[in-house]
Each structure stands twice: as C-alpha cells, then as structure tokens.
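Hi,

I'm pasting everything inline rather than attaching a file, because the server keeps stripping attachments. The sequence lines come first, and each chain or strand is labelled.
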Amino acid sequence: MEKTKIGIIGKGNVGTHLFKALKEFIPCEIVDSRKIKDLDSEYDIAIICVKDDIIEEIATLLKGKAKMIVHTSGSVPMSALSGAAEAIGVFYPLQTFTKDIPLNYKEIPFFIEGNSQKTISVLKELAGEISNKVLEADSEKRKSLHLASVFACNFSNALVMMADEILQNEELDYKILLPLMKQTIKKLNQTDPLKAQTGPASRKDFSTISRHKEMLINNPEMQEIYQKFSNYIIEKTDYNNEFDKL
Amino acid sequence: MEKTKIGIIGKGNVGTHLFKALKEFIPCEIVDSRKIKDLDSEYDIAIICVKDDIIEEIATLLKGKAKMIVHTSGSVPMSALSGAAEAIGVFYPLQTFTKDIPLNYKEIPFFIEGNSQKTISVLKELAGEISNKVLEADSEKRKSLHLASVFACNFSNALVMMADEILQNEELDYKILLPLMKQTIKKLNQTDPLKAQTGPASRKDFSTISRHKEMLINNPEMQEIYQKFSNYIIEKTDYNNEFDKL
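And the predicted assembly:
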C-alpha cells in the first residue's frame, strides 16, 4: 500500500495514535478537522477521527477531497458517510486511546465495514499493516461492540476514579489496587465473568453491603452505584452461589 | 517461622489460596469451619477465612484452640476477635481469590493489624514469606481499602458481565474486550484515572449517550447504570474537557 496517500482528519486521541501507527507503513498526513475547508490535497483514503456528532459534517466537507472516506467511530453507522465519496467504510479500532500513552497496536482488534467488497479488502489490508486481529462487523455489530466497551473500559476507569475518591480520604494511593485489577482481567482469560465474580454481593453478605453503604453516606451518587451493582450481582450470581460459600 | 503451626479456618476461596501459599513455607492445616467444634489441635496462629457475618462466631468457637487469632476480612474490625485469644490481629490480602485460578502472591499487598507490636511483627513476618508488599493498616484504613476494591475489582468484573450480555446478542465473545481492558489498567500505571478517562461521557458526546441508552431500552437496570456512570464522568471530567476535544 506504499502508494496510497492517507489523510487522518482530526488531531484528537484516536487521530494522533492512528497517525503514529500508520505513518510507519504508509504515506500519511494528519489534518486539523477545523482546517479541511482550506485543504488542497487529494487523499486515496481519508480517515475521519472526530467526535461522533460532527462526522457527517466533516464527511460533507471532504467531498471531492478523497476517493475513499471512512470513519473510526463505534456507534455511528456507515451511512453517515453516504454521498461523501463513492467508496465509504468504517475502520474501527476497539481500543482506548490517550495521547502520550503508548499502545501495542498488534493486539488491537480492528473492525471493518465497507460499501463494497473492494473497499472492505482495502481497509482490511490497511488494518492488517498495524494489527494482527482484523475482523468484519456491520454497523449493528459495531454499535454493540462500542457499547460493550463503554461498559468494560470507560466505566471500569470511572470505578477507579471512585475507588481513588475513597482511598484519598485515607491518604492511600489508588495504585495499590492495580495488582488486584490486573488479576481481575487475567481471571477473565480463563473463566467467564459470572464464574469470576467475587465480593460481598456475590456472597450475599448483606451485613458488609450495608456497612459499605453506610460508609458512602456522604456520597449519595456512589452509594447508589454501589447498590445498583450489588443488586445486579446478587441477581446474576444466584445459581452459582455455592462456589463462594464456606 | 518453621516451628509455628498455623490453622487456616475455612475452605472457601481465600482459605484455599492462603493454604496453598503458606504451606510452602510453614506447617499449615486447613480446617472446614463447620468442624472446629471437634478440633483437638492447638495452633500458634489461627487464620479465619470465612464470611464476614460469622467471623465473630467462629472466633468464639476457636477460644483456647489458638494462641493468636486473626481474620482476613477487609471490612470487619479487629475488635470482632476480642476475647478469643490474647493476641489478635488482621491479615488482609488485597486480592481477588477464585479457586483454581493461580496467583502471583509476591505482588499481593498484605495489610496487617495487631493488638500489640509483637503480634504485628509476627504477622508481618508471616505475610513477608509470601508477599513483597506488606503494609500496616488499622481497621478504618482497611475498611476503605476493601470498599475501594469492591468498586475497582468486583464491580469491574460485573461490568464485564454486562458487556457480555450486550455482546452475546451479537454472538460476539467478551474476550475481544480483554486487550482493551488490559490497556485501561496499564494506563492507570502511568496516569491517574481522571486523566485516563475516555469515552462518550468524557467527550460530552450527548448524541452517542442517548443512542446507547436507546440500545438498552429493554434492559432498564443496565440503562440506569449507564446513565449514572455518564453523569459521574461528565461531572468529574469537566475541567479537563479540553484534552478530549478535536
């Protein structure tokens, strides 16, 4: 693909990371999304890496400036790009991107969608340059993947924010929790989340649950989250209760 | 400590794991908590590994059968053992234990409490046999550590259960999310959870948030959890909003 010219549109987290990864293999430019009106280059592939809300708008502005236009969003359908170019598609990396935090791209699953077999194979080849795990997914599948990632990744991080709030009161560092979290993920390689579930709720240990809720008395938001999770776990782990007994 | 005789009381997840780890270094027995009435051995240290609710009851039954009695619970105060032996304490491993899932004990932080300096140093020595990270924590600190772990670990696992529910509808395997989760934890080694937060809520991407909520229309429990997390993230990430912009 060394003759393909790629434009990455958007200098946010995803754009910055994709640019770094792709430029090792393919001629690549990164463009501020606010400056595409003045753009005079033509790209073989334009990869839109902007907030979901403005993907359609940016695609319209790119009309005539790229032969193939794709976006990188989990939750926006491919059809948001309709009319912007003949070849349209989606190039969705299932990963959390933060500027300055390096990534092992080989491990990142890429989910591909395209409006023709040709587009799909170009995008698969492109993703294959940086990742070992390239899969196809239509807009419905991708939406579910994105939603699932928000739960598993974004909300897990938010849970650490909450844990950090609790520990800060005791002048403890949230990093003391990281071995525990690593083990939580490691377990999930070997056993499904239902069997891996531990903690007061899975043990139906109601006195600990109520002590914990009391500790959160001044933080009603976290108290409610605690209760909702406990209800969910109690309900789900009901039938394998015996695993966690004495 | 090779002359110390240890009794681990309770054959659940914690007991089973501690027994495996300690018996490498120290004479050790594991006892079913329902059978301690018939117990005729005397231990130097009895380590109670049972459900929080019955720790006090088990301690009372152990009276006269151990010189030192400790429990392994994050949320029960040391005082629950008062009167059961002269030397009492807490031996709290900050880890999630599941039978048959191996652990790297060296990495597990152990938090120690004791009713005398002598007890504390015996317990520190014992923990030091299996872990590199032995710390002191009084009952208050330990309660916070336990609560924080429930958020960071038990609830993260529950989030994967939820993600799994979403993916099962699309016949996708939750394991596709594990590289993402690994990266989420890895990021937290380098940057605090507030700065590491990504996702629709941190970007104030309200149209994605409402699309996601619509997808959860038949699952009001998960829909509510989605909303609560989004509110929390929106609120907390307010001031560093600019990091996640275009």
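Helices of chain A lie at 13-22, 55-62, 117-130, 139-168, 178-190, 193-196, 206-215, 220-236.

If the labels don't parse on your end, tell me and I'll reformat.
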